Structures are given as C-alpha cells and as structure tokens.
Amino acid sequence: MIAKFNSFSEMLEKLPTDGSCRLFLEQLRWNGEPVCPHCGIKTKDHYKLKSNGIFKGLYKCRDCRERFTVTVKTMFEGSHIGLRKWFIAIYIFSAHKKGISSLQLSRDLGITQKSAWFMLGRLRSSFKEKTEVKFEGITQADECFIGGKNKNRHANKKVKESQGRSVKDKTPVFGLLCDGKVNTTIVIDTKASTLKPIIKELVLEGSIIVTDEWGAYNGLSSDFQHEVLKHNDNEFVRDGFHTNSVEGFWSLLKRGIFGIYHSASPKHLNKYCDEFSYRYNTRNIGDGNRFNLSLVNADERISYKQLIAKDI
Ligand SMILES: [Zn+2]
Fold first, then answer.
1. Which residues have CB less than 5 Å away from ligand 1 (the ion)?
2. pLDDT per residue over 184-225, tens digit each?
3. How far apart are CA 61 and CA 39, in angstroms?
C-alpha cells in the first residue's frame, strides 16, 4: 500500500528528511523490488552497498553488476539539491493551479534562482501526460494566440494586425478537449492544412468535433460529425454542443503565463502548455495523488495509462 498525503503539511511531516524521501520514492517506483536502470532486471535480491556500515540507497545489480540508486535516470539524477527540496518543489508546482515562478521557488526553498529555474525546467519536461489513446466522443477544437501585446511595446516595435487570427507577433496554439482532457499543439499557423492533420491524428474517426465557424475547419464532416457554432452570430451553445471547456482552458493558460511567468517565449511555450495541460487533466485526482503521479513521472518510461492501472 503506497501512502497518499492529504495535504502539503502532512507530506512535510511524514517525510522529514532526504532519507525518508528516498524510501518513499523507492516504494513508489519499485514497490519492494528494485529495478536496475542499466539492464532492467527487477528483483529484491540486488546487493545493498553500505558506506561506513550504513545503507543509503546504493544498490549493485545482481545481473549486470552496475551500481544504481532510485534516482538514476530520473529528473533527480545528478542534482546537488536534496531530495526533500525536490519533493517540496514538486508538491507546490503540481498543486498550485497556476504553477510557481523560479523567483518565488528560490525564496521558498532557500536556493538560488538559477537552481530553482533548473528544477522547474526539469519538472516541466517530466510533466507531460503520457497517453497513447485517441480522443473518442465529443471533442472541442479551438485555437488561441499567446504572445506579446502591442500596448506593452514601444511605438517602433508595435506590430500591425496584432489582434484576431491573422496575427504576426503571437504564437498560435491548437487545442483539442474531450472528456475533460486537453491536448495542446504549438502550430505555425491556423490553416486547414495545419489543423486538420492534427485532428485526424488525435481524434478517432466518426467522433463529434465541435468548433466555431473558422474556415480551417470546413470539410471536417467527411470524417467526423462536425458541429459548427456561429460565434459571430452570438451562438455559443446549440443542442448542448459548445467550446466553453477548451476556451476555459485557454484563459487558465493565459492567466498562468502572464500572471506567474510574465511571458513565455515561443521556444519554451510548448513546455508551459504541457505543464498547464497536465495540471488540468489531473485536476480531479486530488493533490496527494497528483504528487505521487508526478514523482512516478520523474521516470519517463512510465506511462499515464500504466499509472492509472496501478491505482495509486
Ligand atoms: Zn543491471
């Protein structure tokens, strides 16, 4: 039985040291049978190496004889920051709806902003939700534009056509949302030739796609049941179909990026999108479960599906 914390303070109380955090991580990832990260052998009989008579989590593989700890090949590997600080960062980062800035995290943990920035980067790249299944059922599709705002620019840097869909200074993001789960893709434009292949890749043929009247979606009805809402005519719901959920996600993403992170360069935007999608898609499992899920996700090789099957 793997422990689940009901609150941040309970986690702090039950995991007071780096050592207890390591044991917790071992239990969560291995459940009593350590897996050698070098050759993949899983057994409770790997050698436990002691230093000065004390076992501190260093194993020697029974098969390939390589040494390993539970943090090898995870986001914690090679970090000089103690495991407990990582755990605190993970809890805060995954529980707080809008995330946390590196400046705030550096203050909270008593580390440099550079270290905090590095931790957040690692966290962000492991916060991808891993799902291989296609969306099936009622799927909302919509685009949003993230980027600089003209009112914040110097006159000589203002970009023409900064509003609407023909924007030049913003990065378009395409979103699909089905059954409360969102998937985002950074796109070069919002033309049919860009959006349609993504829809076909991620949504099962025959599903219902709900969009607004943007021309790029014309012709979807050959592969899907296409419900078009005429937003220009103030039609936002028809027969229960709407795009409110995906639009709600956009506002969360925009508030998060501008509120906490102030800006996100196009280069890093996909990571922020992944971060917000991950938090959004796990919003109903509770902070304690999300914390455990995030710890296990520190190992890239475990998929979301496998995790759900584990019922942690
Ligand atoms: Zn091995």
1. 36, 38-39, 61, 63-64
2. 999 999 999 999 999 999 999 999 999 999 999 999 999 999
3. 9
pTM listed for this prediction: 0.80
Q: Give 294 Cα–ligand 1 centroid separation in angstroms.
A: 25
Tokens of 18: 């780096």
Distance of CA 65 from the midpoint of ligand 1 (Å): 6
Question: Is 134:291 a contact under the CB 8 Å cutoff?
Answer: no
Element (H, E) at 290: helix 287-296
- Ligand 1 midpoint to CA 48 (Å): 13
* Domains of the chain as residue ranges with CATH: 8-34+70-129+285-310 (no CATH), 138-281 (3.30.420.10)
pLDDT in tens, 223-251: 999 999 999 999 999 999 999 999 999 99
- What's the CA-to-centroid distance between 4 and ligand 1, angstroms? 30
